[in-house]
Specification:
Helices cover 21% and strands 32% of the residues. It has helices at 36-42, 51-66, 83-86, 89-101, 193-199; strands spanning 2-6, 9-13, 19-21, 26-29, 70-74, 103-107, 122-124, 127-129, 132-134, 146-148, 153-159, 162-167, 169-171, 175-177, 188-189, 204-208, 213-217. Helix 2 (51-66) runs parallel beside helix 4 (89-101).
Length: 220
């Protein structure tokens, strides 16, 4: 975990794409997309059905590592609003164990806007926490410090003729977009005009490594 300051608060960024908030002992993640594989399978495109369990296993490990007592999911936690009902038994048991253990908050996104509580936790459209706005998709006109997800940002750069892609945070003074945490999620180039439009000028892509935070300016 590496230090990351935002909105007057001290966070720690994790290489897995999560954010830890020590003052609240809170873990923040975005775009888990549980049951994406089963959703595609229902449409005739067969994908391995292990994405939810893989994501939950990684998330559970971070809860243990950080000692978090609070967990915020910043939208699109399920690939569709009925995803919780399709969870395999082992994934459901792991998830409901976590929601019972933690103060768990689901912020809804565009994929799971009609989410119904079948897996525990509290469902919200957005939230204000200690002066920070937590929502799924960044609002360009929002002037308060805001944490969000939605765009699945990845930084793609060429190193010695080889393209390297890493999940990244995108930050300005008032906006911080988290990368997708889910095991079966793609990514949008951090330089994409839609990301730049959402956060405004002066944005940086932040790549968290185990021992340092790399910063790359993004053109407006």
């Amino acid at each position: 975990m590496v230090p990351l300051s935002f909105g007057g608060h001290a966070f720690q960024a994790l290489a897995q794409g999560a954010l830890y908030w020590p003052a609240r002992r809170a873990l923040l993640v975005a775009d888990l997309h549980f049951e994406k594989g089963s959703w595609f399978a229902s449409k005739g495109q067969m994908l391995p059905p292990y994405d939810s369990l893989a994501t939950l296993t990684d998330l559970s490990a971070l809860v243990t590592r950080t000692g978090a007592v609070e967990l915020w999911c910043l939208g699109d936690s399920f690939h569709d609003s009925a995803g919780c009902e399709r969870l395999p038994a082992d994934a459901r048991a792991l998830l409901t164990g976590l929601t019972a253990q933690l103060d768990w908050r689901w912020i809804t996104g565009n994929h799971d806007s009609l989410l119904i509580d079948h897996c525990g936790g509290t469902i919200l459209e957005d939230a204000e926490v200690d002066g920070l706005i937590l929502r799924h998709e960044a609002e360009p006109g929002e002037i308060r410090p805001e944490l969000s997800g939605h765009f699945h940002p990845k930084l793609r750069i060429n190193i010695r003729g080889r393209q390297v892609s890493r999940r990244c945070f995108v930050a300005t003074a008032t906006k911080l977009i988290l990368p997708a945490f889910g095991a079966l999620t793609g990514g949008l180039d951090a330089h994409h005009p839609e990301i730049v439009r959402a956060v405004g000028r002066g944005a940086q892509a932040l790549v968290a490594l185990d021992d340092r935070l790399l910063r790359f300016p993004l053109a407006a």
